[in-house]
Give the backbone structure.
Amino acid sequence: MQNLSRQSIISIVILSVIACGIHLYASLPEYVETLYSSSVYPFFSSRLRILLGSIPFSTGDVLYILLLFVVSWKLVQWIKRLREEKARRMFLKMTGLNILRFSLLLYICFNLFWGLNYNRKGIHDQLGLERGKYAVEDLLQINHLLLDKVNECKTALLRHNPPYPSGQDLFTRADQAFTQAAETYPFLQYRHSSVKPSLFNFLGNYFGFSGYYNPFTGEAQVNTDIPGFLQPYVSCHEISHQLGYAKENEANFAGYIAATGSGDSLFMYSAYFELFLYANRNLYTTDSIAAKEVYTSLLPGVKADIKTLKAYYKKYENPVEPVFRWIYGKYLQANDQPAGMVTYSEVVADVIAWHKKYGKPGG
């Protein structure tokens, strides 16, 4: 037992040194961007997608399920041993060392597989955008621009009434949106698609998540139970995570660029719909009267979709969801996103900065 304890301590010291090295490296965004996010990560993540992309179901979700069973079994075994173990103090010490070792290993793998992207310079630097605080006039202007776009797209959809894509068609069209975006923005090149329906749609409905990225398998998962008009933009958001845009506002922005520039009316509407809601909510916190005036100018069809979205949220309303959002907000704060869940809506600042530079709302 003493030799085992000594080995555990040595391994923990080695893992701690590696973890500290990663932490120090993460404090240098320029090096993270050039050496990791633009070089090592794209090569590594594309290989994961090549390996698992052709599998029709989410292998990451299966691994999560297996992990849950293993952890549950280990917990039962731990409780039994704790009751039987005579040298409880040594047993608890070893348990603590094992947990610490596992945590360090998880931290290292998470960062090497994907997490360092939280510390990159990001898409703002790639586009040369000056992103900072914006004036109320800027927010009001972008509200009107997005209002015009979402109404325009809805009018086109009502005229032709195309069905929203589902299944593989949805993910193929999201892939095509990035292929087209890469013609203008090469850093948005997406190869070897690996976007899949989530196996946890039921949990997603109650916990409030519409999609997620698995850094250990390189797969993007979409909750295909959410309203159809949200799924195109969510798919683009998750592909953005696969491209290394870890922060939520950056994934929103990269997905917005791809969706609105795709020429696909369903994807364009999905992105403009989502961005209008973000921008209008931001305006409401500053000037509620102006926000309401803009909102009233939405077409009845857009308002009907908003009503559908609210009904979806209402259907799955439960006391667990706010707790899950709080936990996830803390996770975001721990990964260089101090605004927590509000980080998603910070995409509005990106769109405003882009509009100021290029004179367009996005597409």
In short: The radius of gyration is 23 Å.
